[in-house]
Amino acid sequence: MYKSNDIIFKYIEEESKRQVEGIELIASENYVSEDVLKAMGSILTNKYSEGYADKRYYGGNKYIDEIEKECISRVKEVFKAEHVNVQPYSGSPANLAVHLAFLNPGDKTMGMDLSAGGHLTHGFKVSISGKYFDSVSYGVNEDGYIDYENVRKIALEHRPKLIWSGFSAYSRVIDWNEFRKIADEVGAILVADISHVAGLVAVGEYPSPVGIADVVTTTTHKTLRGPRGAIIMCKEEYGEVIDKAVFPGLQGGPHNHTTAAIAVAMNEVLSDEFKEYAKQIKKNAKVFSEELIKMGYKVISGGTDNHLFLVDTVGSVGKSGKEVSDILESVNITVNKNSIPNDQRKPWDPSGIRIGTPAITTRGMTEKDMIYIASIIDNALKDSSEKNIDSLRESVKQFTKKFPIPGLGI
Ligand code: DSN
């Protein structure tokens, strides 16, 4: 039955309001610029262009070719990469394409355990990366840091063909050179997944694995502040195998509107404003974690070197990550529940939460605002009565009015 689309646009309006009136602390989210939105919402979505620039399977790709070439050239400039593929639909297919490029089904892959801060696509058993490939994992030590000697030991024992470095919930700096040495000792291809820290890496606020790892993958929508998409960068010698794995190995036609929006985002990354933005993300995360620690919260590894940190909520306030996330949502603060190292609870109801500052920093929030948000969190968790929650939610709504979101003038 043909229906009006009013309901969909109404929900988009409601979601806009939710974004404006809330404090977004999900470490993997951000707000894109109006130019990125414009490119994403463009007519480029109408076009099929299977293949690569100047080698397409469809006609009419004169302008698409130019857009893809320009996007690749901007990514190369930002990350100093030798070979770049901008076609992966998102991070998970990008990482699957890397598996496809280098492994046969049943071959060994190794990555950081999910509860230690790794990612599903680095060999976790319920993901295709752990079902079709024989995966082994490494964790973190008691202090919450990667123990490179232990990583080496596991690598020497299992001799994986592929080693994943990188994370979705690790608050410290990764020693890419140490991973390089380990990969060389076992003859493995080293992949660095910088999805979370790409925006910091791009401007020198986090060490770059480009030139150290054989392959670097990243999503484009986290600290990089572009559209939902992904990039694979690699040494020239692996360019062909990576390109073939993305298309025709795994995907069909690229999402050209996304490619254009990535190109726009890369230009923004090259601006002075972005350099300041990346610095501020880190300052905000540091102050935020220190403030919670002062209030008695247990922050994994005792702090952060990047844009995120994990809080052991069971150890801090006797509530699971899910309970805390639900309470915070009721005061318009969004976090995600997250496993903590050696978590005894299940991922659906784990022992902690993850907090990140990329989105609130885009809105212009600074150190003093982190102190304010930490106080609201503490207040809500100590007194979750309806009266207090209602009053805190109102305070959050008033607070957010000072911080506009690009493209959301409501
Ligand atoms: N879902 C992303 C995150 O939140 O870290 C990773 O894919």
Layout of strands and helices, then pairs:
Blueprint: H1 6-21, E1 23-24, H2 34-40, E2 51-52, E3 55-56, H3 62-79, E4 83-85, H4 91-102, E5 108-112, H5 128-131, E6 134-138, H6 148-158, E7 162-166, H7 176-186, E8 189-193, H8 198-202, E9 215-219, E10 230-234, H9 239-250, H10 256-269, H11 272-294, E11 298-299, E12 308-312, H12 313-317, H13 321-330, E13 333-334, E14 336-338, E15 352-356, H14 358-362, H15 367-382, H16 386-400
Parallel strand pairs: 1-13, 5-6, 5-7, 7-8, 8-9
Antiparallel strand pairs: 2-3, 4-10, 9-10, 11-12, 12-15, 14-15
Bound molecules: D-serine (DSN).
D-serine (DSN) is lined by residues 28, 91, 119, 168.
Describe the fold and architecture.
This protein is α/β, with parallel strands linked by helices and 410 residues long. It has two domains: 35-269, Aspartate Aminotransferase, domain 2, CATH 3.40.640.10; 272-400, Aspartate Aminotransferase, domain 1. It contains 16 helices and 15 strands. The strands form four sheets. A seven-stranded mixed β-sheet has the order 4-10-9-8-7-5-6, with helices on both faces. It has a four-stranded antiparallel β-sheet with strand order 11-12-15-14. A two-stranded parallel sheet has the order 1-13. Strand 11 (298-299) and strand 12 form a beta hairpin. Helix 6 (148-158) runs parallel beside helix 7 (176-186) and helix 11 (272-294) runs parallel beside helix 15 (367-382). The two termini are 33 Å apart. The structure holds D-serine (DSN). D-serine binds next to loops.
